[in-house]
Write a structure and sequence with these properties.
This is Mitochondrial carrier protein pet8 protein. The structure is a single chain. By secondary structure, this protein is mostly helical. It is built from five helices and no strands. The longest helix is centred in the middle third of the chain and has 17 residues. It is elongated and about 85 Å long.
Length: about 100
Amino acid sequence: MSLLYRTSRFVPAALRTPVTARAFTSSSVWQLKEGDRDTSPEENEKHKQDTVRKAKEGKGHWKPELATNSEEAVKADRSAGSDSIADLQKRTVEYAEKTRK
């Protein structure tokens, strides 16, 4: 649309007025994982403080509660070769028996 056409008196006023763009807005998200909807900010902070405390004591470990889905997948891929199939089957049987009771 040319400048001449937009400013012409033959064009309705609604088309001559500039259109204002809507501002981009977003809401804050407290969850760490994409599918995690039930975790509160207080619970996340508790896990973070626990991780910091254990790291200072030299007993730090990886917490899946603080990882994203993709970080968990990478961790699982890297540690997949560390256990033998027989060990994994044994742990699965033990877990199934424990949860069935």
